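Worked Example 4.2. Read the sequence first, then its C-alpha cells.
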Amino acid sequence: MRLMITCPGCTSRHPVGALERGREVTCGCGETMSLPLGQEGSAGLEIAVFVRDEPVCPLCHEALTEIAEVVRKCHVRTVTRVHPIDSSQFLRLSFQDDIPVVFVEGVYRFRGHVDPVLLLRLLLAGAKKDSP
C-alpha cells in the first residue's frame, strides 16, 4: 500500500511521491501542498521524521532511537529533523495513521517502523554518492 497525502482543502488523496525532494503540488481545488524537505544549508544527509507529540507515540520514540543508533554506528554526517504532525492540518490529515513517517534525502523511505539495516545502507550509499 502506497503512502498518500491528504489535501486540507478538499480532502482528496495524492501519492506522497509527488512531494518528494521538497516539491510542491497544487490540488485540483487550488490548495498548494509541500513538505519541509531538502532544506538549504544542510550539514549532512537529511533525515526528516514526522511524529506525533500528543499523545506520546511509542512507535515514534522507537523510530527516533533506532535512527540515532544507526547514525552513531555509520559515522556519516547527517541532520535529523523532527516535524510534529500536529503543527499543521496538512501533516495531521496526511500522516495521522502512518506515523512515524521517515524521509531520507527527501525520499519517502519508512512508515510505522524503521528498518535499521536498510537505513544504514541508505546512509552509506548517500555518503558515497556525495563524496568526491
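Now turn to a second chain, presented in exactly the same format:
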Amino acid sequence: MTDPSKIYLLAAGSLRAVMPDIIQAYETARLGKERPIHVVADYASAGTLMRQIKGGRKCSVFASADMKNASNVHAESHVGKVFCFAGNAICAVLKEGLTTTPEEILGFLQNNSFCIGTSTPIFDPCGDYTKNILDRAGVCQKRRVYITGGLGKKEKRRNGMSDYAFSLINGAVEVVLLYRTISQKVAQQSKGTIVSLPSELEQPIHYGITAIQPASHEAEDFIEFILSPLAQQMLTAQGFKAAPPSPV
C-alpha cells in the first residue's frame, strides 16, 4: 500500500525543471493542515514510466507528456480521471553557424545532407511528436538520430550538458527537434539557434495527469493543486502552455 503521508510522483522528464518548485509550493501549502505531505518524485520518459507502472512500480500520481500514456495507465487503474494540465510545443535548435527561418525550416529539414536529432518514438512522447512532424515533412528514416528517451537511455548530463547539446556540438546532427521548454538551455549550451516551426508543421501537445490505484486523498489533492492557478502560473513561467483541466 502507498504510504498515505507520501505521494509517489512519476513525471515526464520535460517536467524536471519546473516540478520541484511546484512540489515545494504544495508541501508548503499543506503545512498546518491534517498532516504534512512529502512528495517523492522521479523523472523519465513517459512511455518508459508507463511500462514501469504497469510492471508494478510504486506510484501515486503519473504526470505524462501526453494524454495517451496517462490514459493507458488510467484504463487499468480506473481511479479518478485523466486531466490535461499543460501544453508545450516543438521547435528546432540548429548547430552553431547554421541559420534558417520558420518560413524556410521545412526546406532545411528536407536537406539530405543534414541529420536530425530527436527523442525516441514509442518510449518518449517527444519522439512521437517529432516523428509525426518529420513524417509530414517527408524526412527519410536514415537521417533521424534518436538521441534520448529510449528504453534504458538516460541523459549522461556531461557536466550538466544535455545530450541534445552534446550531439550538436560533436557533429552527430545538424539540428534537433525538441520541446520549446528546454530549447533555450540547449541553444545556450551548444551556441545554436532556436527556430520555431510554421503552423503547417505544428504538433498539438497536451500533458496528462492521473492518480494511480490504490489512490489516496493526498494524491487527488496534489492533482487539484497542479490544476490550481498558482501551479499553472509556475508552469507558464517555464514556457509551458496553459491547458484547461479537461478530464477524459
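Notes for the reader: The two ends are 26 Å apart (CA to CA). The chain has two domains: 6-87+206-237, 90-201.
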